[in-house]
Design goal:
The structure is a single chain. This protein is an alpha+beta fold. It has two helices and three strands. Strands 1-2-3 form a three-stranded antiparallel beta sheet. A hairpin with a 5-residue loop joins strand 2 and strand 3.
């Protein structure tokens, strides 16, 4: 379901949990490693990162088909994109 279809009261609490986890782990409010500006922002959407086979195909089946959900930090200046594995991020 696209984030535009999810009610705001369901997105905001989840976003707040991710912001809190990033802060607790010292992974927020840091400068972009590319342009060195303090413009990294947490995207409201999460992303599903899926495996690619050694041949370069998306793995739709088999043991490499599993992926993971990621939170994305995006530099508002240069577009640098940083992913955090959500399960590991929110784990204490």
């Amino acid at each position: 379901m696209p984030s535009d279809d999810i009610p705001a009261d369901e997105i905001e609490p989840r976003h707040a949990v991710l912001v809190d986890a990033l802060q607790r782990k010292g992974a927020s409010d840091i400068a972009c490693p590319v342009c060195n500006r303090a413009t990294l922002k947490l995207a409201h959407e999460s992303f599903f990162v899926q495996a690619v086979t050694p041949g370069g195909e998306i793995a739709f089946s088999g043991p490499t088909a599993e992926g993971f959900e990621a939170a994305a930090m995006l530099c508002q200046h240069c577009g640098y994109l940083r992913f955090h594995h959500i399960t590991n991020l929110v784990r204490d």
